[in-house]
C-alpha cells in the first residue's frame, strides 16, 4: 500500500492509501467521528464510520487525544464542501504516540503564552499558512533572480565594520579583535557585483535596536541584490518587477493558505509594476498638508507618516531622493542637487511600512573617502571597500528587502513575530 502525504491526495482519488499524521482536532457522535489531521503538507478531514470500521477502531478514534501521532489507512474521496476538495474514509487507525495534556487547546490563549510555546504554536493552521507563504516568497525570490541572471553569493555574518555605523550592532569578540553580527551584507555584495555583475544574497541580519513595534525584530532575514552598470532608475524597475513576481507567485501557489488567513486577495491582485513614485519633498508637503505638522524637511519618517502616505495608494509606493543627512555614507548624491541622494524606500500598502530600501552607490574614490570621513568612520576599516572605487569603478545600485515585513504584508498578519519560525524580540530569546 502506498504511503502518501496529504498534499498528494488529489493524485490518488478513489484509492486506499496510508498517511502519517497528527490529530489537530476532532468531533464525534454515536456512530461517526470526524478527525482533523495534519502532516505538515496540509490539513484534511478523516471520517470514521462505526458500521464500517467496527467497535474497536471506532473506540480508538473517539479516544485519540489532540496532537497524538498516528497512521491512517483510508480511501481518498472527493469532498466538494471543503476548500481542500478531498477527505479520507477511514479503514484502519494505528496510534504511534499518544499526546497527553497538549497545552495549546482550541480555546483562546494570550500572546505571551503562545510565544512561550512557539515550538508548538507553529502546528496551528494559521501559523502553518504563514510559514507556507514565507516559503513561497523565498522560492519565488530565487526563481526571479536566477531567471534574471543574478548569482547567489553569501556574505559573512561576522564583520569587522558596518555599512551604517556600529550603534545598533551586536558586538562580540573575534579572538583578539572586536567583531559585529552583520546588519547587512551590502558592502560585501558590492564587491561580489564587481566580480560577478549581478548578485543577490539571502541571509540573517541583526539589529540591536530597542524597539517593540509590530514591525521590528532583533533577528530577521534580508534579500540583498547588487547590480553593476545599473543606475538608480533601472534599479527601481528591478525592485517593482521583483515584488510583483513574488506577490503573483503567492497568489498562484498559496490559495488555500491565503483563504485560511482570510486575506483579501483583491488587494494583492492589484499589485503590478510599475509602482507610483513620489519624492521626499512631495512626501513632506503631503504630510504637512494633511495634519502632520510635526515632520520637517530633513527628518526621517516614522510609522505614522509612512502609513499616511501609503493610504493614498492601493499599491506599494516609492519615496525617492531623501536628504543626504539622514542616509548612509555609501549613497550616490543627486547629480543636480547636493542635499539629496539617489535612493528610494518602498512602502507597502495597508500600513505595513517600508519593505525595501535601496540606492545607487557612490563609485567615485575621492567622494567615497570624503563621505567615510564625514560620517566619522575609520577609513582603515573600510580600506578594502575603498578598493572597489579605486580599481575599475562603475555605476552600480542595490537594495535590501526585509523578508518578515514582506511576509506580514502579503499574508495580512498584524505582527512580524508571526512571520518567522522563532522570533527574536527585545524581551524574548526563548524558545
Automatic annotation (TrEMBL):
It is found in: Cytoplasm. It catalyses: tRNA(Asn) + L-asparagine + ATP = L-asparaginyl-tRNA(Asn) + AMP + diphosphate + H(+). Keywords: Aminoacyl-tRNA synthetase, ATP-binding, Cytoplasm, Ligase, Nucleotide-binding, Protein biosynthesis. Gene3D superfamilies: Bira Bifunctional Protein, Domain 2, Nucleic acid-binding proteins. Coiled coil: none annotated. One of its GO terms (molecular function) is ATP binding. Belongs to the class-II aminoacyl-tRNA synthetase family. PANTHER family: ASPARAGINE--TRNA LIGASE, MITOCHONDRIAL-RELATED (PTHR22594:SF34), ASPARTYL/LYSYL-TRNA SYNTHETASE (PTHR22594). This is Asparagine--tRNA ligase. It comes from Filibacter tadaridae.
